[in-house]
């Protein structure tokens, strides 16, 4: 169960994305998956490279479109554990429509947002997660927009699983991804993943000073939606841990009339090896 491959990530040294890669690899091993049981779909951005850095089926999609592909993958083969991953620009700007609808649809996949509060791949522009007043090349006088709160959006959209973590907390992050993979429905996990090259405001130290960990709130009940929203708002969305989980609702695919338990890989498609090779060649 080794989810490492021999591809060396080309992320900048110190980038938060390394920990997310490690957490996914550990979580997949902890839940007892084999590499052929896991599919990872990513969008575009520094984070988008993650689908190539894990020993599993990987699909590097187009900008903001990891979720439609990941949902299609799950519907085509429900036996596969499917994970979608991408940055905050990918998921909360160009892909925001998909994010909200995937959340409310509740297909059984896990979505990890690698949230660095900036566009890293294009060398540092303001993203939907950048704070008001944040200065970049695209907002030299400071951003005049408010930062989006992904946790509030996810809860309002009807999420059945919401977690948030921080790249420096590998233990918590691994446990959350593991729980997300086991959850019967859509799991939304936002991860503070510092961009050490372009974001000089939201640094590792800044997060360490500002994060509010739910471990410090023993009375917190993650099944209480009102409590979750109150806590998210009280902490300005800087809450980490398992924020909300509804275990009573079953996932989308269980409600599709006639939907098969058996994955496509098990179906007898009545196609010869030669015909299959011809098909693959045609679509290469
Ligand atoms: Fe990571 Fe930022 Fe470098 Fe991209 S530019 S790899 S987000 S540190």
Entry summary:
Residues 195-260 form the Pyruvate ferredoxin oxidoreductase beta subunit C-terminal domain. The protein has nine helices and eight strands.
Give a structural overview.
- The protein has a single domain (17-259), classed as Thiamin diphosphate (ThDP)-binding fold, Pyr/PP domains (Rossmann fold).
- Helices cover 31% and strands 15% of the residues.
- It has helices at 17-30, 66-76, 88-94, 96-105, 150-156, 170-182, 204-210, 225-234, 273-282; strands at 38-42, 57-60, 81-87, 110-115, 161-166, 187-192, 212-213, 239-245.
- Strands 2-1-3-4-6-5-8-7 form an 8-stranded mixed β-sheet, sandwiched between helices.
- α1 packs across α6 (170-182) and α3 crosses α4 (96-105).
- It is globular and about 60 Å long.
- Bound molecules: iron/sulfur cluster.
- Iron/sulfur cluster is lined by residues 11-12, 15, 17, 46, 116, 120-121, 195-198.
- Iron/sulfur cluster binds at residues 11-12, 15, 17, 46, 116, 120-121, 195-198.
């Amino acid at each position: 169960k080794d989810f490492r491959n021999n591809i060396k990530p080309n992320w900048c040294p110190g980038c938060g994305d390394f920990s997310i890669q490690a957490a996914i690899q550990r979580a997949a091993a902890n839940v007892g998956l084999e590499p052929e049981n896991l599919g990872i779909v990513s969008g575009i951005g520094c984070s988008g490279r993650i689908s190539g850095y894990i020993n599993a089926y990987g699909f590097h999609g187009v900008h903001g479109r990891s979720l439609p592909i990941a949902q299609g993958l799950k519907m085509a083969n429900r036996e596969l554990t499917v994970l979608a991953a991408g940055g905050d620009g990918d998921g909360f700007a160009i892909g925001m429509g998909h994010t909200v609808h995937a959340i409310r649809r509740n297909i059984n996949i896990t979505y990890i947002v690698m949230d660095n509060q900036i566009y890293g791949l294009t060398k540092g522009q303001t993203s939907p997660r950048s704070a008001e007043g944040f200065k970049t090349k695209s907002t030299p006088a400071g951003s005049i927009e408010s930062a989006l709160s992904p946790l509030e959006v996810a809860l309002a959209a009807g999420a059945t699983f919401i977690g948030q973590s921080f790249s420096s907390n590998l233990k918590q992050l691994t446990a959350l991804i593991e729980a997300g993979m086991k959850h019967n429905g859509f799991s939304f996990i936002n991860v503070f993943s510092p961009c050490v090259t372009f974001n000089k405001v939201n640094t590792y130290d800044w997060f360490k000073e500002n994060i509010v960990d739910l471990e410090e709130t023993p009375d917190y009940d993650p099944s209480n939606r009102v409590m979750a929203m109150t806590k998210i708002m009280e902490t300005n969305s800087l809450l980490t841990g398992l924020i909300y989980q509804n275990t009573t609702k079953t996932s989308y695919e269980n409600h599709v009339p006639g939907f098969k338990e058996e994955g496509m890989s098990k179906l007898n498609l009545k196609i010869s090896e030669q015909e299959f090779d011809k098909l693959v060649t045609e679509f290469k």
